[in-house]
Amino acid sequence: DAQESRGLGDVYKRQNQTRISMPGTYAAFPETAIDVPESWDGFVWPGAAFGVRKTVDGDPFAPNVLITLERWPGNIDLDDAAKVLSQRMTAAGAEDVEQQQHGESFTMTAKQHDPNLGAMRVQYCLRVIAGEGFTDAITAVGTCTVDQDELIGDEINGIVRSLAVESSMVTTIDRDTAA
């Protein structure tokens, strides 16, 4: 009954056990990309796959766009995924919510309140990819203060709406630039 150590921590392969992996047993998350102006920098944020931000001189908040990936059990269509996003926004205290569906994407823009920064403008673009018994929900979330929105809102909108998602099962690229 030999045990084999596998990388970080104490992960062992034992007799009568099956290794579950991703990719392998489960499909890998889809490839995800956004188009970013040169003045933006990549960064890592807890709970996000990746993000980009722009430093604004003299401003304590860096406008940013985060990409999140969630895997949900079952096959969820875009309408139902949009309802989940809308419920989350309502629970977070979103105001002045505008929602639109563009082909294979759902977009939302809302105003939210941050206790330290005040009024924030948040833009979302949601896409879903169906797998065998699961759905991947990919979201681009752009955030800036309401004061920053006049200067940088269009850039954030462009980044959020450039969200491109590609998986081995399906390709979803919808670069609708409608406001």
Give the secondary structure arrangement, pairings included.
Layout: E1 31-33, E2 41-43, E3 50-53, E4 64-73, H1 78-91, E5 95-102, E6 105-114, E7 118-130, E8 134-145, H2 146-161, E9 164-166, E10 171-173
Antiparallel strand pairs: 1-9, 2-3, 3-4, 4-8, 5-6, 6-7, 7-8, 9-10
Main-sheet strand order equals: 2-3-4-8-7-6-5
SSE order, as H and E?
A: EEEEHEEEEHEE
Residue share in β-strands: 35-45%
Q: Looking at the structure, what is the overall shape?
A: globular
Question: Overall mean pLDDT score?
Answer: 84
Structural class: alpha+beta
Q: From the alpha-carbon coordinates, what is the Rg to the nearest angstrom?
A: 19 Å
What is the number of helices? 2
The quaternary state of the protein chains shown equals single chain
Distance between the termini: 62 Å
Q: Can you tell me the residue ranges where pLDDT is under 50 for at least 5 consecutive residues?
A: 1-11, 170-179
Describe the main β-sheet briefly. 7 strands, antiparallel
Characterization of the model:
The strands form two sheets. A seven-stranded antiparallel β-sheet has the order 2-3-4-8-7-6-5, with helices on both faces. A three-stranded antiparallel β-sheet has the order 1-9-10, with no helix packed on it. 26% of the residues are buried. A hairpin with a 2-residue loop joins strand 5 (95-102) and strand 6. By secondary structure, the chain is α+β, with helices and mostly antiparallel strands. The chain has two helices and ten strands. Helices cover 17% and strands 39% of the residues. The termini are far apart.
